[in-house]
Amino acid sequence: MLYELLCMSTSPPPQQVDLSQFASVEDAIEKARASFAGFVPLAKRIMAEDQKRLQLPAIFMLSAIARGTGLCLGVVEAVKAENPHVAFPLLRSYADVVMVVLYVRIRPAYLVTVMKGPRNLPPGTPGRKGSQAMINAVGKVAPGFKAAWGELSDITHFGSLAIWNSWQLKEGPTKLGSVNFATYPRWKNPSDPLLACGWLIELSGALSETLDLMLNEWSPPLWDGVVLDGLPVEPA
Question: pTM score, two decimals?
Answer without folding.
Answer: 0.85
